[in-house]
Design a protein that fits this description.
Length: 308
């Protein structure tokens, strides 16, 4: 039975294929989960390309795509505490099992119960996008009224970052393509089209003395273009580009533990955070879903719903 989507070698989209695999059996520190919804993230195609060998370089092929999921626990490893068979949960597949699959295993310490009233679709966006946004805002620790630039604000992490920043009283401006303007401004953030001829001037006008903090979600040349807009290089935090340290900034310090997952879930329940899911696909449409994220055209968050 075809029940997963992944790849047998590192490479581009051409290496992706549907796979038949036995239901994974949880190790002592894992829980087995019947996947209801899987999140789709830029990290997925980065791992598929083999660009982060520290995460999946030692994982045997075939590898299954995906790092975050929500579903129901079907088995619990002997070393896992606080979770039981039948629990609705969400979490990280940090041991390489992937989440574009009908069944998977999640790391017990990086899995939390899904609160009543929170849908699997929303819960599945928490492990990667939700916790990353919380981590960057916590790491910057800016006071109310501070000016924050989110470089590449239009995706799942960017929209979540904007919402959390606004909830803490920060003044937020974000860069993205013009098609994402309405989604960005709905968070209360100001919008600057990075393709526009006055983009740099518009950003400088927002913070004439420099931004109190910059969250970079793009990296590369784009990171280097916006970094000089910071009042201090030490307040530049990049989610995906480790070269940020060369300009005096820092890579986000990630927290993937259960308490962090629960914090984000609580923010959703309280109405502070909306993952802004704009695309829902079936497992059969996994290639299409990932392509939309990989080409940078996706606005907000994309998920795979496997309940159909």
């Amino acid at each position: 039975m075809i029940n997963a989507y992944g790849y047998r070698t590192f490479g581009g989209p051409e290496v992706q294929e549907f796979l038949a695999r036995p239901a994974p059996v949880p190790a002592a520190h894992e829980v087995a989960v019947a996947v209801g919804v899987a999140g789709v993230n830029p990290l997925d195609h980065v791992l598929r390309a083999g660009l982060l060998p520290a995460l999946n370089g030692a994982v045997p092929f075939p590898q299954v795509l995906g790092m975050e999921a929500a579903g129901v626990v079907t088995a619990v490893g002997s070393g896992v505490r606080g979770l039981e068979v039948g629990d609705r949960v969400f979490g990280f597949a940090l041991t390489g099992a992937g989440t574009y699959a009908r069944t998977t295993v999640l790391l017990g310490s990086a899995t939390a119960r899904t609160p009543d009233g929170l849908s699997d679709r929303w819960a599945a966006t928490i492990p990667v996008a939700g916790t990353t946004a919380l981590d960057v805002i916590d790491q910057l620790g800016l006071p109310p009224g501070a000016r924050l630039l989110v470089n590449g604000i239009g995706g799942g992490v960017g929209i979540a970052t904007a919402q959390l920043a606004r909830a803490r009283g920060l003044r937020v401006v974000g860069t993205a393509g013009g098609a994402k303007r309405a989604t960005v401004t709905a968070t209360g953030a100001a919008f600057v089209d990075y393709t526009g001829p006055t983009a740099e001037a518009d950003l400088r006008a927002f913070a004439p003395d420099g931004f109190d903090g910059i969250v970079d979600l793009v990296g590369g040349a784009s990171l280097r273009a916006v970094a000089p807009l910071a009042a201090a290089a030490t307040t530049v935090v990049s989610v995906g580009d480790p070269t940020v340290v060369e300009i005096g900034g820092a890579v986000v310090e990630r927290h993937t533990d259960r308490p962090t997952l629960e914090r984000v879930a609580d923010l959703m329940v309280q109405g502070v955070l909306d993952p802004n899911i704009t695309a829902v696909h079936t497992l059969d449409e996994a290639a299409q879903a990932l392509a939309g994220v990989e080409n940078g055209h996706a606005t907000g968050k994309t998920v795979l719903d496997l309940t159909g």
